Amino acid sequence: MMLATTVRVLEQLRHDHRSVALILVVPALLLAVVYFLFENETLPPGAPRTFDRVGLTMLAIFPFVVMFLVTSVTMLRERTSGTLERLLTTPLHKADLLFGYAAAFSIMAALQSIVATAVAYWIFGLEIQGAAGLVVMIAVLNGVLGVALGLLCSAFARTEFQAVQFMPVVVVPQILLCGLFVAREQMNGFLEAVSDVLPLTFSVDALQEIAANADATTALWQDAGIMAAFVVGVLVLASLTLRRQTS
Q1: Can you give the residue range of the structural domain that contains 127?
Q2: Number of domain units in the chain
Q3: Where are the transmembrane segments (predicted)?
Q4: Average pLDDT, the chain
Q5: Is the pLDDT of residue 246 over 60?
Q6: Band of residue 92 on the pLDDT scale cut at 50, 70, 90
Q7: Is residue 45 part of a domain?
Q8: I need a labelling partner for 204 at 20 to 30 A (CA). Which of 61, 88, 130, 166 fits?
Q9: How far apart are CA 210 and CA 130, in angstroms?
Q10: What is the rounded CA–CA span in Å between residue 51 and residue 31?
């Protein structure tokens, strides 16, 4: 049943060209904007480019934001159209439904991450120590995390506008506190404590490990494992909060 749900969602996405473009094309275009922001910066000889640091982090943030938005709105549309209520009157278990959605959008997140990473490496010349495959892995985990949080938040929204309103609550604080703008050790004590338990923080730490080391480190795998645990935990929580009837 989970596989059938996955196939159904992918089939719907295949006919939704705007959503496919949002998922696959927009992150690469935003990455281009980031690149050209720093294109004319003046650096001392041998100094690393700002794009190599910021662009690498954006490879994790963009999938997270885009997949959260697309998933939450799509799931809410299923509820308001009555599709979700009809599905849940069948023997389909809520966990099958949620994990089927997660699997479908995770496939899209993987494609998105591959496209964005290819653009970063082969068009904009991203230079880091680690392999591109490791970057894709973390980017995919971030996309799947966005999917899981989007599914969870959609249970508490009644309109698409309300679903979008969860972004300042769930997404923006993680971006501000992940260490992109200010090193976490330089933050206020309370904000640093909050940052230490946010899933996006672990993805940024993992990318920093990739940037600094040619081979995968123990810290990298630990961060990836924590992110995966967050994803599973959020999906389980989403299945528990999913209502069988449309309010």
Answers
A1: 2-9+16-36+50-241
A2: 1
A3: 20-38, 58-76, 97-124, 130-152, 164-183, 224-242
A4: 84
A5: no
A6: low
A7: no
A8: 166
A9: 5
A10: 10
